[in-house]
Write a structure and sequence with these properties.
Mean pLDDT: 86
Structural class: alpha+beta
Largest sheet: 5 strands, mixed
Radius of gyration: 30 Å
Helix content: 25-40%
Number of strands: 24
Strand content: 15-25%
Number of domains: 6
Low-confidence stretches: 23-29, 61-68
Shape: globular
Length: 654
C-alpha cells in the first residue's frame, strides 16, 4: 500500500507542476482551480498518512541555496571500489550456492545521505573514498531524495546521482553556439553537483537512485533486496535490480543487455551483491575492494573505420598530443570520429598512417580508443609523420623519452601561447574585454591552429575566415558571431584593458584604482613605485608585480599592439557631490536592494565612494544587513570601531 501511495504522490506532483508551469509560463490553463485544490489536498493527506515528503513536493517551499564553497567531510568508513570482471560465467562462480542481487551500475556520482529524526541532515560525495564534499544544499534539489521520511532513527544510505541522456542532450542544446559542450552525462552531473548554486542542480534534473542501505537505527533485515524495497517505501528512488542465483545469473545479464538501448540513465555495467548482508560483511575486504560484491563490465563494442588525419594538439603542459581523425562510426549509441593517441610510442606500436583501416572502441563505453591497426606496413611509418614545428607558436619541436621509455612530442618554448591559454581565457572575460561567446574550447582551437599568439590577434581573426570556417565545430554562423563580438569589444574603458592584461595580483579593483588616478594609456607603463604606493589600496606587493610586468619587452609590445586595436572610452563621470563621496566601504553578506554585491559596488564607485575587500583602519563603513553576524569582517569592524550599516541606512546616506 505504501508503494502505491508514493506512486500516487509522484503522479500528483507531476500534474500540479505541469498545471503551474502552463499557467505561469505560457498563460494557459490546463485544469480548474477546484481541480488543482482537490489534487493539492489529496497530496497533503497522503504526505501526512505516509510520513513522506517527496523532493520538489508542491506542498513545500524549498528555496534555492548558494554557498561560497563545498566543505570537506571525512567518511565514517572507507568507500572502496568494486572488483571487476567481463566474464559472465565468473558471476556464477562468485555466487556459488548463495543468492544475489544484480542491478545496474549507474554512471554518475556516488553520494552518501544521512537522516535524523526523519529529516535529511547531510549529503556527502564519495570524493576519494575517505574524504568527500558536503553537498547537502544541492541534495535538496535532486529528484529521488525525499526531504522527510517516516523513520525517526539515524539512517545512512548510498546511491548514485546522475543526469539522464535526455536531460544531458537538452542542456547541451541550450548552450550558446561556440560554447564547449559537455562530453558525457557523468561529467555534466559531476560539475552540476559541485555547483555553488543549487538552482543549477534543479534546472538540470539530477536524479538519485539508492543502491545500498548502510545503517538504520533499530531496523533489522538481512536481505539486501528487501532493504532496497524498504528504502523505496520511505520515498527514495532506488536502483532497478533482479534477484539471482548461480543458475540464472548469466541469463539475467542478457536481460539487462537487451534493456540498454531503452535505458535513459547512463550505466557502465552491472553490480552483483550477495543478498545475505551479514554473510557479505563477514567476507571482509581487501585493500582495494570489498568481497561482498563484484562489478560486471560490458565487453567493448568495436567498429572498423579509416584513419583520415592525425592532428597535433598543443597543451598547457608543453606536450603536443596526437589525435586520430577517422570516418564517423556509431559506438554505444553515439557518433565517434576522433580519438586521442596520447603519445608517439602508442602511434609507433600501432604503426599508424593516414588511410589505414583501424578498429575503434569506447573504453568503459565512454572514451574513444584506437585499439588495432588492421593495415600492415613493413617499415616505420610514424617517425616521418611527427611534426617538426609547434602548431601554436612555430617553434621547433622536440621528441623526449620519459624514464619509463615513453616517447612524447613537446614544444620547448616557454612563451608558447598553448602554455598560456589561461591568459587568453582571462582576456575575454566579462570584467575584462567582454568578448561574448568566446569559449575555452574556441580559444584552444584558435591557439592550436596558430591564430592566437598575442592579445591583438583577436582583432585580426576576421582575416582568417576560410581557416576558421573549416575547423571542426565551426561554420559561417559561428565565424560571424565571433567576429561581431570581437568588434564590439574594441571600444572599452581603460581599466578593463589594463585588467585584461592579466598582470599578477592586479585585479579589477586595483586596475580601476590605478586608472582613476592615471587616465592616459601612455602613462600606465611608466608608473613608478612612489606613484603606485600613493594610490589608496595599492600596496608594495601589487606595485612590485605591476612594475615587474611592464619591465618585460614582450609584455610592453603586447600592450602597445593591443592599444593600436582599441578605442579607449572616456572615463565615466563620478558624482562627487553625493553623500558618500570620498568614503570607503566594505561589503559583506547578502544584499537585497541591489541585485548583487557587484552592482552595489558599482553604485558606490559611481557616486564617488571607494570599495575595499577587507576592513581596515581606513574603512568608514561596513555594509552588512546582519549586524549581529559573527563573521570575521564584523569582528574586525567592532575591533576598529568601524560603523556597521544596513543597505537601507547606506541608501539614506546617499
Amino acid at each position: 500500500m505504501a508503494d502505491k501511495n508514493i506512486e500516487r504522490m509522484k503522479e500528483i506532483n507531476e500534474l500540479l507542476e505541469r498545471a503551474s508551469n502552463a499557467y505561469y509560463n505560457t498563460g494557459t490553463t490546463i485544469m480548474s482551480d477546484a481541480e488543482y485544490d482537490k489534487l493539492y489536498n489529496e497530496l497533503e493527506r497522503l504526505e501526512e498518512q505516509t510520513g513522506v515528503i517527496l523532493n520538489g513536493s508542491r506542498t513545500q517551499s524549498v528555496g534555492y541555496e548558494v554557498t561560497s564553497y563545498l566543505p570537506k567531510v571525512r567518511h565514517p568508513r572507507r568507500m572502496l571500489s568494486l572488483d571487476k570482471t567481463k566474464d559472465r560465467e565468473q558471476l556464477a562462480s562468485f555466487l556459488g550456492d548463495k543468492k544475489g542481487f544484480l542491478s545496474w551500475k549507474l554512471d554518475g556520482l556516488t553520494v552518501c545521505l544521512y537522516y535524523d529524526d526523519g529529516k535529511l541532515t547531510q549529503a556527502v560525495s564519495r570524493g576519494n573514498g575517505e574524504v568527500g564534499e558536503d553537498m547537502t544544499a544541492n541534495a535538496r534539489q535532486i529528484k529521488g531524495i525525499p526531504l522527510k521520511i517516516p523513520f525517526n532513527g539515524h539512517l545512512a544510505l548510498r546511491g548514485e546521482a546522475l543526469i539522464g541522456y535526455t536531460d544531458f542532450n537538452r542542456v547541451n542544446e541550450s548552450l550558446p553556439e561556440g560554447a564547449e559542450q559537455y562530453k558525457n552525462p557523468r561529467n555534466l552531473a559531476s560539475g552540476t553537483l559541485r555547483s555553488l548554486d543549487s538552482r543549477v542542480v534543479a534546472e538540470r534534473s539530477v536524479n538519485f537512485f539508492a543502491f545500498t542501505l548502510v545503517e538504520a537505527e533499530g531496523y533489522e533485515n538481512n536481505s539486501f533486496a528487501e532493504r532496497l524495497d524498504w528504502l523505496g517505501s520511505l520515498g527514495f528512488q532506488r536502483v532497478f535490480g533482479r534477484e539471482v542465483d548461480e543458475d540464472n545469473v548469466v541469463e539475467a545479464v542478457g536481460l539487462f543487455e537487451k534493456e540498454i538501448a531503452e535505458n535513459d540513465f547512463p550505466s557502465d555495467g552491472l553490480v552483483l551483491m550477495f543478498d545475505d548482508v551479514e554473510y557479505g560483511k563477514n567476507l571482509g575486504e581487501t585493500v582495494h575492494h570489498p568481497r561482498n560484491a563484484i562489478a560486471f563490465k560490458w565487453a567493448d563494442e568495436t567498429a572498423d573505420t579509416t584513419l583520415r588525419e592525425i592532428i597535433w594538439s598543443p597543451s598547457r603542459t608543453g606536450l603536443i598530443n596526437p589525435i586520430a581523425n577517422f570516418d564517423t562510426v556509431e559506438l554505444e549509441g553515439t557518433s565517434v570520429s576522433r580519438a586521442s593517441l596520447h603519445n608517439i610510442s602508442i602511434m609507433k606500436k600501432l604503426n599508424l598512417a593516414v588511410g589505414d583501416t583501424i578498429s575503434v572502441y569506447k573504453a568503459n563505453m565512454i572514451i574513444p580508443v584506437v585499439g588495432e591497426n588492421k593495415s600492415v606496413h613493413d617499415e616505420d611509418v610514424v617517425t616521418g609523420a611527427v611534426i617538426a614545428e609547434c602548431p601554436a607558436c612555430g617553434s621547433k619541436t622536440e621528441i623526449r623519452l620519459s624514464d619509463d621509455g615513453v616517447e612524447t612530442l613537446v614544444c620547448p618554448d616557454h612563451e608558447c601561447p598553448a602554455k598560456h591559454l589561461g591568459k587568453f581565457e582571462h582576456f575575454v572575460q566579462r570584467d575584462a574585454m567582454n568578448i561574448v561567446g568566446m569559449a575555452s574550447s574556441t580559444i584552444k582551437a584558435f591557439v592550436d591552429n596558430g591564430l592566437l599568439r598575442e592579445f591583438s590577434d583577436f582583432y585580426h581573426l576576421a582575416e582568417h575566415r576560410d581557416k576558421i570556417v573549416s575547423l571542426e565545430g565551426f561554420g559561417e554562423k559561428s565565424f560571424e558571431q565571433i567576429t561581431e563580438a570581437v568588434e564590439r569589444s574594441r571600444e572599452v574603458e581603460l581599466y578593463r584593458a589594463l585588467y585584461a592584461l592579466g598582470i599578477p595580483n592586479i585585479g579589477r579593483a586595483a586596475s580601476k584604482l590605478i586608472c582613476e588616478e592615471f587616465t592616459k594609456a601612455a602613462e600606465l607603463e611608466k608608473l613608478s613605485m612612489e606613484e603606485l604606493l600613493a594610490i589608496d589600496g595599492i600596496g608594495e606587493v601589487l606595485a612590485e608585480d605591476y612594475i615587474e610586468f611592464f619591465k618585460k619587452e614582450k609584455n610592453l609590445k603586447e600592450f602597445h599592439d593591443l592599444l593600436d586595436e582599441l578605442k579607449i572610452k572616456e572615463p565615466e563621470k563620478v558624482n562627487s557631490d553625493s553623500g558618500i563621496a570620498g568614503k570607503s566601504f566594505v561589503i559583506t553578506g547578502a544584499v537585497h536592494l541591489w541585485s548583487n554585491r557587484n552592482e552595489l559596488k558599482s553604485f558606490i564607485e559611481a557616486n564617488g565612494g571607494k570599495v575595499a575587500s577587507a576592513v581596515s583602519g581606513k574603512t568608514d563603513y561596513l555594509i552588512n544587513n546582519d549586524a549581529t553576524s559573527s563573521s570575521s569582517k564584523n569582528k574586525k569592524a567592532h575591533e576598529l570601531g568601524v560603523a556597521i550599516i544596513t543597505e537601507e541606512e547606506f541608501k539614506d546616506m546617499v
